């Protein structure tokens, strides 16, 4: 939240005990980690742009969480948040990302030629394939903290860079606030339009301020490559198409991302990235690759099988309904994607999805014929 | 954590951007500085007020009508003593463009000083909202002497219930949009300690929202006393729901006729109410209770936010002055169907709402009728206006029952119409 530059100093008048949040009913990563002693140590700090520990944790204080789902409960306001508040964020990252240590290094690999297979998923079962990630532009504050001027600067830069894309990546930008009714309806029909956040997880962190100023959607003419500007992150980049050719989706994803990155560099900007955390995004859950590669796949038999969850766990996959996170599956069709984000490269994660979905489809075909799947149960990845 | 190498890279790229925008090497160096004060200075140079001015073209609220780029440029970098900024005052108005038929205020105060430091914006908003009241030249009268009210007992055949509410803020502590958790807890402590000193028909009990048992919660719901976490975006965009339900609660007396909300939209909201038409008694208890609470906090060295220009200081500019809404639930089956009903209310300086409160529709023939105005007239004046108005409405209803003619009354004078 963009409080005045010295608001934090005013709070120091009160003792740490008086300011420490009541987390007794809370169940999120932040609440597990933030002790009174840690709060006392961190409350006097702020990042160069003025983001404080209270700003980091506000969303986690306001949203105690769900008894079954463990949310993260904190956000970054700028790149330096991960450094200044590492005492808080490192243990959260370790817990959320499978034991990733403060000294670990993250590999980035956007060379889609390294993917084996992936063009061979059976389209009778795999209805659609999609890869998404996020990118932050270095030098600008992130959505919870940015001023209107900064957000507009990110939009202007993005429009310029995306306008330089050519070939099958050539496309058009639709600013949310200038959209005509016809354009809006088309974007809704294409399932591209994003709306103002309604989730209290996002609202409590200040990400919806000034909506819809400087927000927009860019997509290519073929509608297979899509960029969201200034929603939950500076940029969200999505490659998608019907059918099971994940290789083609990932090829386009890597080509597009690499091109966009170089277009930004031409204009004097890098993406936020470092050796330890990979790509830096607003939510700690999206660090590393920020990548979710997934398919919509028909698994009516497999999903009723007692071993379904175990197979997903061993393949490092997660299931969602086809409405996205927190929805239920409809008609035996599931959204299957990678569970990890950090500590594995992009190629490794997409490989896991490709191999895992191929196996799930094989199992589905076996079960259709009344055959057993015990002999093809995978080992834990 | 960023290595020295990546920090160097970031430095070079940002330097290129800043140079291309015309910022000199000094500004560049400052922006990359780890010293946040210097970085803030560099940011101001890099982002002039014009780059931050909100897009208000689709907006219809008092803030959007008053805020010009020139005013924004002068006020953007000002801070109140509690480090509250203009952007924080107006955030709710930027995020909520308003309704084509209802004009919302579109800004809030973070502390008492907001009304001074940002007077260039708040004064025209106050003038717009409060019938031309000019804080620069006018004084607001405070009068809590309930003995002055005449004809304050209504016909129970028509008036089902009577109620008076206002708000009070504790001087020296930031308001709900701005307060830290410690400040909010301090407000709770100051108020609850004072309320524990009330005696006789005002003796009562505090129910902290966070600590309530299920049984207590159900009782408060049944009594229509419980307030819930704000869902209106007008409030959530003004940062008022932070840390819910920490330091929020409800106090009421044993008779359930005097009720105080702690740390909801204001530090305190004070309500006196009862069934039936005895508005005089409701207002008497209101004034007595308010004065006793004020006395109890003064004993401990605290006071309410108040000044001659603006009266009682509350979070929303619409509640300045008296912050008072005095109202009744009244049955007006014949009058409400008369085409002159709205005009009569207008001229009497009254407003109608459904019995669910603001923005609800009336069910059947029962309306919530209350005073329109808050600032520029005293509490006694406003309650008397309500009393005279409701008596007039009931008289009209009775005349219509008897088949007699009714008249639209002459409009009550204001500073401007």
Automatic annotation (TrEMBL), chain A:
GO molecular function, a single term = ATP binding
- UniProt-listed CDD domains: creatine_kinase_like
- Per the UniProt record, which EC number(s) apply here? 2.7.3.2
Organism listed in the record:
Sparus aurata
Quote the catalytic activity from the record: creatine + ATP = N-phosphocreatine + ADP + H(+)
Boundaries of every Phosphagen kinase N-terminal domain copy? 11-98
Question: What is the name of the gene encoding this protein?
Answer: CKB
- GO-annotated biological processes: phosphocreatine biosynthetic process
Protein name (record): creatine kinase
Q: Which PANTHER family match?
A: ARGININE OR CREATINE KINASE (PTHR11547), CREATINE KINASE B-TYPE (PTHR11547:SF23)
Listed Pfam families: ATP-gua_Ptrans, ATP-gua_PtransN
Which branch of life, at top level? Eukaryota
UniProt family annotation: Belongs to the ATP:guanido phosphotransferase family.
Organism lineage reads as: Eukaryota, Metazoa, Chordata, Craniata, Vertebrata
TrEMBL record, chain B:
Q: Give the function comment from the record.
A: Reversibly catalyzes the transfer of phosphate between ATP and various phosphogens (e.g. creatine phosphate). Creatine kinase isoenzymes play a central role in energy transduction in tissues with large, fluctuating energy demands, such as skeletal muscle, heart, brain and spermatozoa.
Its record classes its membrane topology as: Peripheral membrane protein
User: What broad class of enzyme is this?
Assistant: transferase
**GO terms under biological process:** phosphocreatine biosynthetic process
Q: Where does ATP bind?
A: 161-165, 224, 269, 325-329, 353-358
Q: Does the keyword Secreted apply?
A: no
Q: Which CDD domains match?
A: creatine_kinase_like (cd00716)
- Kindly give the Pfam families that the UniProt entry links to this protein: ATP-gua_Ptrans, ATP-gua_PtransN
Cite the source lineage.
Answer: Eukaryota, Metazoa, Chordata, Craniata, Vertebrata
Q: Specify whether Transferase is a keyword of the entry.
A: yes
Q: What is its main location?
A: mitochondrion
Q: Which GO terms describe its molecular function?
A: ATP binding; creatine kinase activity
Q: Cellular component GO terms, alphabetically? A: mitochondrial inner membrane
Q: What are the UniProt keywords, alphabetically?
A: ATP-binding, Kinase, Membrane, Mitochondrion, Mitochondrion inner membrane, Nucleotide-binding, Transferase, Transit peptide
Q: Which family does it belong to?
A: Belongs to the ATP:guanido phosphotransferase family.
Q: Give TM segment ranges.
A: none
Question: Where does the Phosphagen kinase N-terminal domain start and stop, copy by copy?
Answer: 44-131
The Phosphagen kinase C-terminal domain extends over: 158-400
| Localization terms from the record | Mitochondrion inner membrane
EC numbers listed for it are: 2.7.3.2
InterPro entries xrefs: ATP-guanido_PTrfase, ATP-guanido_PTrfase_AS, ATP-guanido_PTrfase_cat, ATP-guanido_PTrfase_N, ATP-guanido_PTrfase_N_sf, Gln_synth/guanido_kin_cat_dom
Q: What is this protein called?
A: Creatine kinase S-type, mitochondrial
